[in-house]
Amino acid sequence: xxxxxxxxxxxxxxxxxxxxxxxxxxxxxxxxxxxxxxxxxxxxxxxxxxxxxxxxxxxxxxxxxxxxxxxxxxxxxxxxxxxxxxxxxxxxxxxxxxxxxxxxxxxxxxxxxxxxxxxxxxxxxxxxxxxxxxxxxxxxxxxxxxxxxxxxxxxxxxxxxxxxxxxxxxxxxxxxxxxxxxxxxxxxxxxxxxxxxxxxxxxxxxxxxxxxxxxxxxxxxxxxxxxxxxxxxxxxxxxxxxxxxxxxxxxxxxxxxxxxxxxxxxxxxxxxxxxxxxxxxxxxxxxxxxxxxxxxxxxxxxxxxxxxxxxxxxxxxxxxxxxxxxxxxxxxxxxxxxxxxxxxxxxxxxxxxxxxxxxxxxxxxxxxxxxxx
Length: 373
What we know:
GO molecular function: ATP binding; glutamate-cysteine ligase activity
Radius of gyration: 19 Å
Largest sheet: 7 strands, antiparallel
Helix content: 40-55%
Shape: globular
Catalytic activity: L-cysteine + L-glutamate + ATP = gamma-L-glutamyl-L-cysteine + ADP + phosphate + H(+)
Number of domains: 1
Keywords: ATP-binding, Ligase, Nucleotide-binding
Number of helices: 16
Strand content: 5-15%
CATH architecture: 2-Layer Sandwich
InterPro entries: GCL_type2/YbdK_subfam, GCS2, Gln_synth/guanido_kin_cat_dom, YbdK
Order of helices and strands: EHEEHEHHEHHEEHHEEHHEEHHHHHH
Function: ATP-dependent carboxylate-amine ligase which exhibits weak glutamate--cysteine ligase activity.
């Protein structure tokens, strides 16, 4: 059974005003002092962000428990220096992002200018184990049409600088400002994948290979394919669903490759349109059906995804849970729907942030309360 690991980025906010706070260095110092942060928590591009990485897991219940534990540990360390954490993919309230002092981040600020300043966006990246680079590239080629569906399910960024963007995932639109971000053409082999990365590096536009921001890519450090399209999810169970579907996609793609099935030949231009539609609509309108790239209701497209992954999910014992989780997500709404529902009820983006922070930190769960749309 393939292992799965998750990287999540959390927003540091003031526990009273809900405004983002540039305190990641202090939170990391607190975590390291307690001996809890050395291998779990990391700094990110902006000082208002905190990242954690789970261990590789084969059981999705174990993965979910670790995500909850990491979120609570992040909240505890942040709380000790006067901050809260919120699983929000953008800040609903206006913010002036503070770029970190690391040499890498400062290079990016100089080279990319305002695009770097505005990249206070928070994602969820899923690593799924592969047996070789050849299998990994075969997977990257075959998961392309389905990634927009994961983006729609995870969408959790409707607000930007104090305004409703009309998007479900505005984070993904901001992310596309990086010159290497987005969907890829078909590679066909690990050799051609590596040649393309080398060609990109030779342009001098990217600092290093870590800045090859493909929607799906081979990890530089682990024997994994990394799927990078999801917003950080408000609910931990949504993050588990995204990880479950990601593993199903990787396994299904690997089986297709071994069976000699060619990947779908959708152009990058059409894949970009599918990604835009997912960012705009989330689960509240139409998506582009990955098989034919024509509009279809979101529920129809998600059912198609589950059917596509049926054998792989059944073999890991995840099929019924994935179906139930998708049904619950349509009932409850993804993070974007929940945030808009909170704003409608409270009339305050501050209250949206604080309620989402309470939920992220586990207070809502302990009281038996979940933010409702």
